[in-house]
Amino acid sequence: MALVQDAGRFGCRHLGVTQGGALDWISLGWANWLLGNAPDAAGIEIAIGGLALKAERTLRLAIAGADLGATRDGEPLAANGSFTLEQGQVLAFDQPRAGLRAYLALPGGIDAAPFMGSLSTVAREQLGGLDGRGSAIQVGDRLVAASSTPQRGEPLRELPSLCAMPTDEAVLELVTGAQIAHFDGASLFAAFNQPWQVDSRADRMGVRLTGPVLRCQAGGMVSEGIPLGAVQVPPDGQPIILLNDRQTIGGYPRLGALSPIACARLGQCAPGTTIRLSPVTPHQARTRYLRQLARWR
Predict the structure, then answer these.
(1) Ranges 28-37, 62-71, 153-162, 266-275: which has the least confidence
(2) What region does 190 belong to: left with phi over 0, alpha with psi -120 to 50, or beta?
(3) Per residue in 41-68, pLDDT tens?
(4) Cα separation of 68 and 169, whole Å?
(5) CA distances from 288 to 9, 37, 265, 292 (A)
(6) Which residue of 167, 174, 235, 271 pairs with 200 in a disulfide if CB–CB is 3.0 to 4.6 A?
(7) pLDDT tier at 156, thresholds 50, 70, 90
(8) What are the structural domain ranges in the chain?
(9) Alpha-carbon distance 37 to 149, whole Å?
(10) pLDDT over 70 for what percent of the chain?
């Protein structure tokens, strides 16, 4: 599936409108950086592969993120770099070799009408995308670059470690908080010292983890706002990490929330990937987030 995504919608969750945006915002940022775009410019999020695009004119493009076996007229392309697609050539994405989602950037971003300040596609709410109704990119759709020429055309010589694709195991930083004090000691020890597996029940709304059963002693809860990366624990004791297309409120107890960097990494984790949770302070998470933003300046 291929979706138009940017940084997402903000300032509207009190209206019940979710965030949307690129799951791996770091890879989208690097793809945009390669062309001199703003890091949050709209690009194409390509999940799993199976996309083919034909150029109507010659233009410079960039891809970053997962290695989906991208080719230009059948010739392999590097998983992270900028390149020229000549008029009539076909850019195709096959299937995952490392990671799940690749990001395609066009000069200046994508020329389309934003809704609530964003082009991000949220299929469940029928918002954003090329048609403004939350549709994935379909056969016959036309992508138009917002600028005729890129501001930069340099290849990315070395992929930063923070953007490297998870393989068999990923360590995800979690800012503790919310109802964490209501979990018993054995559950907290297990949460941060035992491995978790990414379940097959995973999408842009959230990712289920399987592993030790966590027990919370909190009673009934009033639903409250849910941040990006919130780690909810339903009655079965198996955590659900809520992502960009999550609901805006929820009533399950939470251990806290993943850091922005960890959310991006989780967006590239295939079912079966081993996950380990690592507690961090808000200051540590913020420092690493700002450090990533500074790399694009």
Answers:
(1) 153-162
(2) alpha
(3) 999 999 999 999 999 999 999 999 999 9
(4) 19
(5) 22, 22, 13, 6
(6) 271
(7) low
(8) 2-158, 169-294
(9) 11
(10) 95
What pLDDT digit, counting tens, does each position of 226-282 carry? 999 999 999 999 999 999 999 999 989 999 999 999 999 999 999 999 999 999 999
* N-term to C-term CA, the chain: 31
| CA neighbor of 62 nearest in space, from 96, 98, 101, 109 | 109
Whole-number Å distance between alpha carbons of 251 and 256: 13
Q: Amino acid letter at 103?
A: Y
Give the count of beta carbons closer than 10 Å to the beta carbon of residue 145: 20
**Ordered alpha helix ranges (H), 75-118:** none
DSSP bridge pairs for 75:
72
* Number of Cβ atoms within 10 Å of the Cβ of 66: 29
Report the distance separating Cα 206 and Cα 2, nearest Å. Answer: 18
